[in-house]
Write a structure and sequence with these properties.
The protein is α/β, with parallel strands linked by helices. The chain has helices spanning about 10-30, 35-40, 50-60, 75-90, 100-110, 125-130, 150-155, 175-190, and strands at about 65-70, 90-95, 120, 135-140, 160-165, 195-200, 205-210. The longest helix has 23 residues, at about 10-30. Bound molecules: S-adenosylmethionine. S-adenosylmethionine (SAM) binds next to helix 4 and strand 2.
Length: about 210
């Protein structure tokens, strides 16, 4: 499938995020692991362009209208999800703990004329998930890595038939390999899930509920 040309307003917002991510990547590589951990809330920590594009295509192809994002950060992945939602008449619910990040994300989505397609919830994602009834057709899990399994436990029974769940950071950063492995084991053991690890971006586990 050939991707459709992107709306210039969306392209401009994505380009700004990607320029910031490139600068942050350089800073990240110079700092110690401890300092990176301490200052992680200053960084976008985005899924990256290949993962963003893949999710955008999956949503459009599958007409996955009820989209959930767990960990919006400053809104890079949200932009890719929202662009797909707009194309197919869907909506994104995006969960994030830090209100300042959500504020930034909202401003960028307004610039891209995508704000109407996203509902942000600022709270602990586990608390938000307990309240959200679902069902969800597409989910991105991309919050702190020790929470992937608890998030999946709350989500599993809220997936629609054919729903896709994408989990980021399965391969990189390497220090999260143990948490990533625990998530993959859990999702692969869950009833009705088929799952594959893709070396796209930071490593994506792409799982389908049937
Ligand atoms: C890796 S970043 C998300 C990057 C984003 N998906 C992107 O591609 O631009 C992880 C985010 O999860 C958020 N987070 C961590 N724990 C959370 C929790 N318990 N509830 C909600 N958000 C949480 C962090 O504040 C951080 O912004």
């Amino acid at each position: 499938m050939r991707p459709e040309p992107m709306d210039p307003a969306v392209s401009a917002v994505l380009a700004d995020y990607e320029a910031r991510a490139e600068r942050e990547q350089e800073i990240w590589s110079r700092r110690s692991a401890d300092e990176n951990l301490r200052r992680r809330d200053e960084m976008l920590l985005p899924v990256g362009r290949a993962a963003g594009m893949l999710m955008n295509l999956l949503i459009k192809e599958g007409e996955a209208r009820r989209i959930l994002e767990v960990g919006s950060s400053y809104g890079y992945s949200t932009t890719w999800l929202a662009e797909a939602a707009r194309t197919i008449g869907g909506k994104v619910i995006s969960l994030e703990l830090q209100g300042a990040k959500t504020q930034y994300a909202y401003t960028q989505l307004e610039r891209a004329a995508l704000a109407d397609f996203v509902e942000f919830r600022v709270d602990d994602a586990l608390a938000s998930l307990r309240q959200l009834p679902g069902p969800f057709d597409f989910v991105l899990i991309d919050l702190w890595k020790d929470l992937y399994v608890p998030v999946f436990e709350l989500l599993h029974h809220k997936l629609s038939p054919g729903a896709i769940v994408v989990a980021d950071n399965m391969l990189f950063p390497e220090e999260f390999r143990a948490e990533a492995r625990a998530y993959r084991q859990r999702v692969r053991a869950a009833a009705g899930m088929s799952s594959v690890l893709l070396a796209v971006g930071n490593g994506l586990e792409v799982s389908r509920y049937q």
